Amino acid sequence: MKIYRTAGGWFAEGAEPGKVFRIPEGPQSVTTREDLHAYLQQLIQSAPALENLPENLLAPIENQEVWAAGVTYFRSRDARIEESKDAGGGDFYSRVYDAARPELFFKATPSRVVGPGQSVRIRKDSKWNVPEPELTLLVSPKGAILGYTIGNDMSSRDIEGENPLYLPQAKVYDRCCALGPAILISPEPLSGDTVIALQIRRAGSEVFSGTTPLSKMKRRPPDLVEYLFRDNSFPGGCFLLTGTGIVPPDSFSLQPRDEIEMRIDGIGVLRNYVE
Fold it and tell me: What is the DSSP string of 3-40?
């Protein structure tokens, strides 16, 4: 089951293709995945179905903060070491990959998040920018994983590579994050065989593509959530990006008008453009 946010409110899509149902409110007040799944099932059985999902999807976020985890894939570890070698920061990333405590950082407020079809940004003071496709968790106020969506953790690699302490500037700025197209509500965790795919097009031609299965992620999503909720409270819940295992080569940087397409099995396609 999937839920979508549009300018007209929230909608649920059941197992039967082509039928959607209006939801009175978003999922931010639900405390468990089981309660949310049961609520949506009951709604679908009692509410009249609409024939089509309204157009102009928005990011499926209301008042939640967006956080992110770093260096959760070996490929990301290698990329961080390489980009920061001249600044002497490579050892930090090797150590955090092997450490018990994960790297967690604040990513975006809702106002900095865009949805499907909207434009993400690259910083004016950066020359090396990449998208990072990530499985993203919707987490309840009590720390339960309610569902899954796709997140684009835009990153200025030259800024972070210059000094690891510049991470907030490399990661947090206007339209630095995209979420969508839907939140997948599943009674079971996603399989390790689930594939994340990235494709970047420039002037209609593919300039980069890559895939990775979730099984390549070193850390378990519940463990990331547990660390995030230590001495942190989220009255409306939060979103947590779980890291990327797809990194373009060092010679690649996004350009204005590039098209970024991210796909995760069972969730859908998140497509954005670059400004």
Answer: EEEETTEEEEE-SSTT-EEEESS-GGG---HHHHHHHH
- Judge if pTM exceeds 0.90: yes
Domain boundaries of the chain, sorted by first residue:
2-56, 65-274
**pLDDT tens profile 73-124:** 866 666 555 666 565 555 777 788 888 999 999 999 999 999 999 999 999 9
Tokens 């519940």 map to which residue?
222
pLDDT for residue 117: 97
Q: Is 188's pLDDT higher than 90?
A: no
Q: By the 8 A CB rule, do 241 and 70 touch?
A: no
Q: Architecture of domain 65-274 in CATH?
A: Alpha-Beta Complex (3.90)
Nearest to 116 by CA among 170, 164, 180, 212: 180
